[in-house]
Amino acid sequence: MSQVKAKETEDHGSKNLPQEIVKLISQAQEAKKQAYCPYSNFRVGAALLTQDNRLFTGCNVENACYNLGVCAERNAMAKAVSEGYKEFKAIAIASDQTDRFISPCGGCRQFMREFGLNWDVYMSKPNGSCLKMTVEELLPLSFGPDDL
Ligand SMILES: [Zn+2]
């Protein structure tokens, strides 16, 4: 079911993208250049757009103690929250994978969900094409702040 939905948004999402989303994907690609990933060599960049159009970027930051590494998406969200922004419109994610759209890990999906279900995640390829899904589509039946 979600596969079918994703395919539909892929076809639509790669064309006629709003200018602010094209820019967001470009900023995610730029942020990817700062990735610190000497262990995986898997560069990821993220660009987060707040409801009031502030932009925060992040990259993955690995560590010799592997499990301390931080994903690009969580890095960008933590930067925004630390600056007082908690309402998000969209996040774009970029990697070097040319054959598939970069997809957020389960931890990042849960982290996104903390700040709402109905905002957009643009999973991109280096050529700028993307797959758009909402946080709720990426994490159905989720556990969040309302459950506590
Ligand atoms: Zn992640």
Automatic annotation (TrEMBL):
The active site is at E73. Pfam families: dCMP_cyt_deam_1. CDD domains: cytidine_deaminase. Its EC number is 3.5.4.5. Zn(2+) binds at C71, C105, C108. NCBIfam families: cyt_deam_tetra, PRK05578.1. This is Cytidine deaminase.
